[in-house]
């Protein structure tokens, strides 16, 4: 008797094999967890899925309920990823003040790891000499009291433009209302653009600026989407939702625009069209002129890291 495998039978066979592999991985992880040191209490998880379904549609309320049942530290398994939930201020103090070096690095999802560029940023990079250098520059050039006072007129101009945008839009779209969130985000975008690059990045008459704004918004949305590979690392190489591919495409497009901004500044400096004193220098000037000791920090910030820092900021 001959057996002919149809495409549907082949599909179900592949699904069964994949399910069997995931079950074996789950059993192996459970055995490994049983042999490790004592872990905080937590609810028992479902096979393969762990506690993902237990969180429900309002995870913040679920975590409050879990705190009353299990205490200030709750151990969850989201897919095959072990997760420790800190549910009290005292536990957070103990964790992040007295064990800060062990817990200071941020957990990155798979889309944030694309291209390996995260270490060039202060928000995503791992703690170390380079991160401390970026923090020192950011504190001095962005968050110091002097810089905040010096940039007050700049922020005032951006707010005035925001009010004008809303007023013009309200006159043109009086029946449909105004999308305030987009204008507020664009205004904040311009504040950072002026602090870092001494220019507006969003302007109705500037196609490149608006392209930068739109691409950055799309990139932010992609990196925030739920990704199966974040909960089941075995799937990271398959990229089942195509999020890593889309992230890389958008990131390359945005970095090309950032690079054009930086190259434009270099041309202005070479041609002598732009002369700034210390009071007028923006963050891009500081980063381009940075000179490190070449030991625990680089002698210069590379073009690649400069682009990434500007993009993420």
From TrEMBL:
<dbReference type="GO" id="GO:0016705">
    <property type="term" value="F:oxidoreductase activity, acting on paired donors, with incorporation or reduction of molecular oxygen"/>
</dbReference>
<dbReference type="GO" id="GO:0033075">
    <property type="term" value="P:isoquinoline alkaloid biosynthetic process"/>
</dbReference>
<dbReference type="InterPro" id="IPR001128">
    <property type="entry name" value="Cyt_P450"/>
</dbReference>
<dbReference type="InterPro" id="IPR036396">
    <property type="entry name" value="Cyt_P450_sf"/>
</dbReference>
<comment type="similarity">
    <text>Belongs to the cytochrome P450 family.</text>
</comment>
<dbReference type="GO" id="GO:0004497">
    <property type="term" value="F:monooxygenase activity"/>
</dbReference>
<protein>
    <recommendedName>
        <fullName>Cytochrome P450</fullName>
    </recommendedName>
</protein>
<dbReference type="Pfam" id="PF00067">
    <property type="entry name" value="p450"/>
</dbReference>
<dbReference type="GO" id="GO:0020037">
    <property type="term" value="F:heme binding"/>
</dbReference>
<dbReference type="GO" id="GO:0005506">
    <property type="term" value="F:iron ion binding"/>
</dbReference>
